[in-house]
Amino acid sequence: MEDMVTLWTRQDERSLRDLERLGVFRNKERYIRDNYEDVSDHFIYLYKWFVEAASKRVPKPEGVEFPIWCSISHESMLRPILGTVAYKLRIPKSQIIYFDGGKWDYVLNHIYIPRDLDDQVEYMEDIDKKGFKDQFNFIEGKYSRLYPQERKRVMDSWERVFEIDHWNIFSTQANIWEIKPENILEVYKYRE
After folding, report:
1. Which residues contact residue 86 at a Cβ distance below 8 angstroms, ignoring those fewer than 6 apart?
2. Residue 115 predicted with pLDDT over 90
3. Contact predicate 68/12, CB 8 Å
4. At 153, which helix (H) or strand (E)?
């Protein structure tokens, strides 16, 4: 029998309907748009990158659009708020994509993920030597189309999001592609 792992995730309460009607919950672009509203394009662009990179590690099932973000511990889980529920899940280990949430912040900010401190220093010295005023404009912004090699360098470094240097319950996070009823151990509902 495959190793099973307990994860927690907070989702819109409409996910309960999907589970009942469809027998599966999958994250969709419209859910992301509902959640992030005006900044949803920013997240969708980066989530699409994540989907492509994560699919190389754990194949994405047909029909899945986006991953489901999960916490690896009860202590670090997002608690239910109005309009949401939280799930305690039991997921086969082979279906989990672990990543470093601290490194994901680099992706959200469109910047280079260094291998280590020395690499960070070398990178900053290099872009300074090339005359760039900052590291924030290679993906979007004034440099985004002018310097494709720098853009590629930054985006290639994002693969390091899957390298977990320090495993802990707050920065180590997990993604799964879908939730089925048999994965659910408990559902936590919002209480005022």
Report:
1. 8, 9, 10, 11, 77, 78, 79, 80, 187, 188
2. yes
3. no
4. helix 148-157
Task: Supply the pLDDT for residue 95.
Answer: 97
Distance between CA 81 and CA 16 in Å, rounded?
15
pTM of the model: 0.91
φ, ψ for residue 101 (rounded to 5)?
-65, -30
Q: Please tell me the predicted confidence (pLDDT) of residue 1.
A: 62
Confidence of residue 89 (pLDDT cuts 50, 70, 90): very high
Distance CA 138, CA 153 (A): 9
As its CATH architecture, domain 4-110+164-189 has: Alpha-Beta Barrel (3.20)
CA distances from 135 to 110, 130, 141 (A): 8, 11, 11
pLDDT of residue 63: 93
Each domain of the chain, given as residue ranges in start order, spans: 4-110+164-189
Mean pLDDT across 122-126? 96
Q: Which amino acid is at 5?
A: V
